[in-house]
Amino acid sequence: MLFNKLGLAAFSLLLLCSKSECRSAPEQLPTAATLDFHAVAGDPYATEVRDMATASAKQIQLFFGAPFPDPIHFQMVADRAAFDAALPPKLGMGATQCWMVGLGTADLMVLLSPDAWAKQACEHDPNDSQAIRQLIAHELIHVYHGQFNATRDFSGIEDLDWFIEGLAVFGSGQLTKDRLDRMQEAVSAGQLPTSLSSIWTGPNRYAFAGSLVRYVDQTWGRAATVRLLKVRSSAEALALLGTTEKSLLAGWHASLTHAQSSG
What is the pLDDT of residue 7? Predict the structure, then answer.
């Protein structure tokens, strides 16, 4: 089991963003997300994962200030073979690598059950309930994003990983202190990405992408972040923000340096 009743009650109070980050979102939304959840009968994680998905969907709607336009079709599968078979063929992913345990698009979210992680996954701990919650929220943000994006599954988008993945990292709470600390070590060593295309690469990609989207959100506001859900290239994103790649990266670099000196 992921956590006891007390842990679940505490989890239900968690937000995916701080009060200041949620400042433009309403406290309540008129429409609740429709969660179409399926798991193999008898899966010991089914109830907890479903509850995590329900709570995360609610907080994602608060984060963005609008409900999911479409139902969330959530399928939790029992093994790696079923996971691979459930992925949309048009994505052309074939056999997935061991670190991949979840995928979200506008029309489908697939999760390899944590019950299979010990033998069929790597880099994921089935006993770490916080990491599981954040992973579910990460993929659900992809679902939400896809429902507002014309591609619906981000196919054909070649240069927007920094925003697609950074948004999911930032909004899900995966921009953890541990990741930020490791990123600051890289900043101190002069290992900063110098192009948008290099943000979602290397061991610090979660922190780099998540902190860049956090910088955009804090600088341009949540309304701009919401408008970015519809863009399909970095050029469109930069035009919407009224900036250039060089200026965006310079401002982000300065914010990281300032955070380091303040710390």
Answer: 39
Nearest-angstrom CA–CA distance, 189 and 79: 41
Confidence of residue 30 (pLDDT cuts 50, 70, 90): low
The answer on pLDDT for 242 being more than 70 is yes
> What are the structural domains, with CATH classification, of the chain?
5-148 (3.40.390), 161-262 (no CATH)
Beta strands in the chain (DSSP E): 35-39, 72-77, 102-105, 108-112
The separation between CA 116 and the C-alpha centre of its own chain, rounded to angstroms, equals 22
The whole-angstrom separation of Cα 223 and Cα 55 is 23
Local structure of 240: helix, strand or coil: helix
What does DSSP say about strands 108-112 and 72-77: parallel, antiparallel, or unpaired?
Answer: parallel
pTM to 2 decimal places:
0.88
3-state secondary structure at position 109:
strand
Whole-angstrom Cα distance, residue 12 to residue 56? Answer: 9
Q: What are the φ/ψ torsions at residue 156 (nearest 5 degrees)? A: 85, -5
Which amino acid is it at 107?
D
Q: What backbone torsions phi and psi does residue 110 show, to the nearest 5 degrees?
A: -120, 135
Strand (E) or helix (H) holding 161: helix 161-172
Residues 60-72 as b or e (16 or more Cβ within 10 Å = b): bbbbbebbbeeeb
